[in-house]
């Protein structure tokens, strides 16, 4: 079997292909739990591409953290087991490995412009099913939900049309089918 | 709060009283601590009771190492009590040390009153923030009604699964406030339930691999010791059943008896020639409660290239972390070994005797290399010789050895032989100079009748020397045995081998007169400079009923061999009798970059 060479003492870069993974982490909603999760990423040098967190059950006092991270399969596996051993963590699921996970993100974009650019922005927004949630004579704020790459695309299109500001929520993700996340 | 309140509190008392009561209910007999403003209510409650004995240390780092020594030698969690701010930050080194070496500690820290948190109050620090990465878990208790539950949970978390340190930070107002108390039995943890029993299919697969082996090896670690004495017994039984040779990490020494013919000695950077070669050439490796640390594996891509590997570990994140294994079994060592032995016996499994005999022959040829040989001198004490004599004159089931960090630590591991678990306490993962003497105090507290010796270096011992005063106050007859080579020897050795003998700041300049220093503390001081005086000095040390400090002057330039230079494989060890030139050439440019 091939040995990984990822020891701190043999920092040859990973030659294994890296992939993007979405992890869902069910945690006790208590102070410091997010710091523990993030601290694990920063302390061990893992990437966070996107992070969302919110309470999902008030009665059970549970929060769900969704982390999008990139790395070779072995590193992702290591992240997962490291997360799993944090005391307030109930369960960790690699939604990318379950294969059929749904991902959505919400984006707010402010675009400023007049005349043709303004008309163009509005019609593109329409094509992307974005909603106008604020308007002045010279600006719009669009709201749009979708997969992250669709939002990327929308931002690219808005750039030449007077893009002023972008706010994104980060990815929320859930597996398809009738099964719930195993506890 | 991560636990269920399954029972209503039965009694009401102050937070400080809850602390004492919870400790007593957890069976705690000794705690190591240092007072300060933010823990005064707890100290007041301590004053008014008799069930818990408090050991007053001289520096909070000392308290943490004492608790570690106590825990490691007794199997019980060590308990520390310190104040807010500097008390807590001083404890950080010991907490990190305990995390790295999987030692169960519960550390109670005082905190400024709740309403002052975040205001830069006097002696405020973000204790939970600072200790988050260096504890297994930590808590800030803001409501006195949560306190009992959190404390019981802290003991549960510290001692179950892979053990580790847990901090409970208690603001002063919570210590004063009155709240309900619940006992330990009423606390059930909601999320944290480490798996003890190994997966049956995996265990079967492991047995299949083992029975097909021709060149098996057991590579064992601190996890065997943490699993409890039963695990050591089972390890012995399984090794004898299979006939496999056994090696161990620094942390695991004593789990398998050094006097057993199947024992190979310690492995790794300063391990034995036979252990490292056997690791390199084996065909099936059973790793029991060890974690493929870089001091063990050496060059990863050349680590035991031809073997199939089985890994038993209670921490799932240790499996496949550094080294890929064929069979990873998550579970407690004793539980898993018990199952393995049962299947092995039931299926009348056996390792091919012819193969095993060949393997033994190979191993014996490595043994014959006599890798720990050294040249004794008529005039200078060799450090190896000092440990050998110390071993001969002090060995026994009631002897406990702690160490500091450096060459003396490695020589102790190489030349002192352990036949039982929990007799060897050393800072492995963090390598903390200053660990050994306070650890010895903790060990002595747990084993008042034991002979407890800190094998030390003259540099390390100065990092927590103040704890001699603690030993004197509590009449703890620890023995400090310093191998005084007037150098930070391990640093000097690396500078010699890796940095062209440029001994930058590694000379122990302006050393105190240790005998006078010891005597100033009320400790008996002895100095030994000549090989002829070695035995007499050691005997005098043992015979003195109180604490003793031996300043044993040894060869200044001795190096610690065998050594696997950084960046090299197990079968590329340097041995003690090669010339200096070969030593220098043996280390690659790439290796010099490594730690
Ligand atoms: C707190 C701490 N600081 C620095 C080091 C790095 N270090 C490792 S061994 C060593 C020298 C130890 O010298 P001594 O105690 O005299 O032991 P010797 O190697 O001479 O036996 C040093 C400085 C360490 N391990 N711990
Ligand atoms: Mg020294």
From TrEMBL, chain A:
Transmembrane spans: none
Tell me how this protein assembles: Dimer of large and small chains.
One example GO MF annotation: acetolactate synthase activity
**Function, in words:** Catalyzes the conversion of 2 pyruvate molecules into acetolactate in the first common step of the biosynthetic pathway of the branched-amino acids such as leucine, isoleucine, and valine.
Asked if the Swiss-Prot or TrEMBL record annotates the protein with the keyword Membrane, the reply is: no
Q: Which PANTHER family match?
A: ACETOLACTATE SYNTHASE SMALL SUBUNIT, ACETOLACTATE SYNTHASE SMALL SUBUNIT 1, CHLOROPLASTIC
Listed Gene3D superfamilies = 3.30.70.260, ACT-like. Chain A, domain 2
Q: Which organism is it from?
A: Chelatococcus sambhunathii
- Pfam families of this UniProt entry? ACT_AHAS_ss, ALS_ss_C
Top EC class for this record? transferase
Keyword Transferase tagged = yes
Q: Where is the ACT domain?
A: 22-100
For this protein, the Enzyme Commission number is 2.2.1.6
Per its record, how is this protein called by name? Answer: Acetolactate synthase small subunit
Top-level taxonomic group:
Bacteria
Annotated metabolic or biological route of this protein:
Amino-acid biosynthesis; L-isoleucine biosynthesis; L-isoleucine from 2-oxobutanoate: step 1/4; Amino-acid biosynthesis; L-valine biosynthesis; L-valine from pyruvate: step 1/4
What is catalyzed by this enzyme?
2 pyruvate + H(+) = (2S)-2-acetolactate + CO2
Which keywords does UniProt give here?
A: Amino-acid biosynthesis, Branched-chain amino acid biosynthesis, Transferase
Question: What protein family is recorded?
Answer: Belongs to the acetolactate synthase small subunit family.
From TrEMBL, chain B:
Q: In which pathway does it act?
A: Amino-acid biosynthesis; L-isoleucine biosynthesis; L-isoleucine from 2-oxobutanoate: step 1/4; Amino-acid biosynthesis; L-valine biosynthesis; L-valine from pyruvate: step 1/4
CC cofactor note: Binds 1 Mg(2+) ion per subunit. Binds 1 thiamine pyrophosphate per subunit.
Cofactor(s) it depends on: Mg(2+); thiamine diphosphate
What is catalysed by this protein?
A: 2 pyruvate + H(+) = (2S)-2-acetolactate + CO2
The Thiamine pyrophosphate enzyme TPP-binding domain sits at 405-552
Query: Which superkingdom is the protein from?
Result: Bacteria
Q: What is its EC number?
A: 2.2.1.6
Which stretches make up the Thiamine pyrophosphate enzyme central domain? 203-339
Which keywords fit this entry according to its UniProt record?
A: Amino-acid biosynthesis, Branched-chain amino acid biosynthesis, Magnesium, Metal-binding, Thiamine pyrophosphate, Transferase
The Thiamine pyrophosphate enzyme N-terminal TPP-binding domain sits at 13-129
Q: Which family does it belong to?
A: Belongs to the TPP enzyme family.
Listed PANTHER family: ACETOLACTATE SYNTHASE CATALYTIC SUBUNIT, MITOCHONDRIAL, THIAMINE PYROPHOSPHATE ENZYMES
* Annotated protein name in UniProt: Acetolactate synthase
Naturally occurring in which organism (per UniProt)? Chelatococcus sambhunathii
